Amino acid sequence: xxTDAITGADALVLAAxxxxxxxxxxxxxxxxxxxxxxLDRVPGVRAVxxxxxxxxxxxxxxxxxxxxxxxxxxxxxxxxxxxxLANLHNARRANTPVLNVxxxxxxxxxxxxxxxxxxxxxxxxxVGTVHPVPGRAAVARVxxxxxxxxxxxxxxxxxxxxADHQSEEAPAERPARPGTPATRPVVEGARVKDAATRLRDxxxxxxxxxxxxxxxxxxxxxxxRIAAHTGATxxxxxxxxxxxxxxxxxxxxxxxxxxxKAAAVLRDAAVVIVAGAEDxxxxxxxxxVPSILTRPGTLVRLARPHEDAEEALLELADLAGGPASxxxxxxxxxxxxxxxxxPAAVGGLVAALLPEGAIxxxxxxxxxxxxxxxxxxxxxxxxxxxxxxxxxxxxxxxLGAAVxxxxxxxxxxxxxGSGLYTAQALWTMSRERxxxxxxxxxxxxxxxxxxxxGRHGSAELGPQAGALTSLADPCIDWVELAHGFGVPARRxxxxxxxxxxxxxxxxxxxxxxxxMVL
Length: 518
Ligand SMILES: Cc1ncc(C[n+]2csc(CCOP(=O)(O)OP(=O)(O)O)c2C)c(N)n1
What we know:
This protein has helices at about 10-20, 35-40, 55-65, 75-95, 120-125, 140-155, 165, 190-200, 215-230, 260-265, 310-320, 345-355, 365-375, 395-405, 415-420, 425-430, 445-455, 465-470, 480-485, 495-510, and strands at about 5, 25, 45-50, 70-75, 100-105, 130, 155-160, 170, 205-210, 235, 245, 255, 270-275, 300-305, 360-365, 380-385, 410-415, 435-440, 490, 510-515. By secondary structure, the protein is of the alpha/beta class. The protein has a 7-stranded mixed beta sheet, with helices on both faces. Strands 3-2-4-5-7-6 form a 6-stranded parallel beta sheet, sandwiched between helices. Strands 12-10-9-13-14 form a 5-stranded parallel beta sheet, with helices on one face.
């Protein structure tokens, strides 16, 4: 061995760290052992164990939504990647940069179709770009290229690295320049001017639909100025990757989830200007309901989701000529302490007790929608939602956000059914001493699916349909579950109990879980 020779695994971690990667959410196996060793040999990347790969990938998504920088994952072959795909899908829909590292069999062993062999590249291609490592010499270059691709394209970049290329040694390369941080292309002036003309012509019959980085503070304030001047109506996309809220921002509702309602609010618009959001389309196709929610000729794309929508909105506000600022709304009112817990009471209370600077990971509609309605005038906070609809995202995302921002309190407002897909995230929250308070909406049903059954003409639940949407027999005990994963937990059935439990949890820091009996 040459004196300055390093392994391929060392080279990979060095390239990642050199590009700004600080955390690796990992669940490794035999084919990733050199990389596990490298995480000790090369300083700078903190390894965080997730007990199922979908925890790792969801945490990487949450981490990057907060920092704007990719985290690394470390997953075991095709099956490990397959376990993590649902949350990589959500990350793709959130335009999140992720450096997704997957080990493969030793290259000369691959032809024998050993039990864990599978088409890793085919799986990875469903969520982003694929970067195979052809040999030891290519490890650093491929890793850097993948990280660049993740940051430039705001997406998931998968490095597939066979075990032999991880363990082979070669002379260390000169350290590379730090890679490009995540960047968004600037919207050309002509598009902003065109939107300004359409806005002027539409008068108060304009709708602005905000998403992407338009949901930072500056973008929303600019949209508020436009609305104050023109009478335009503002909406955010239904499931934003990251939205700043409260703290004097204008009250902006989400575009309704069900297509009939969404189409109704867009029907009278003379123009619908999308800034950082996807075109408004129905979440699902229902017989007799159009997929496209805007009327023909009314859609104007000011900025696409990966583009700099914030800057475009600032320019649009200047062209439209709005007031310099807009007045804040009134703070949320807490519900009466004597009431039993209802979704509306939970939404109101959590909004009223929200600590300044909190990050709220919301998954599930039961308390998610009422919270959103109540929290527009809460103290400044950040909301993260499930962008891709693959459930099991809320707890891992909260975990990643807490690792990214240890100085900010994180609240996971979580429906119970979705939470059970990745409940192991609680263990990592405990092990990493994260400041996450998990609020579980324990209605013991897949409630949204009951609504969907109703929409499909099932007026009464059949026994099988009832059973397939019930979590009540046996009733899952979240307090016991949390204790098993090392997270202190209690139960709240009335507003006063939730107030006390949430106040205590936020004051003492560290992970907590509160089962909200609904
Ligand atoms: C990966 C994945 N599997 C299944 C589904 C289908 N699905 C959508 S919502 C839902 C149940 C949600 O129940 P819960 O999280 O308890 O929410 P509630 O509506 O009761 O608030 C299911 C199973 C999905 N969206 N994603």
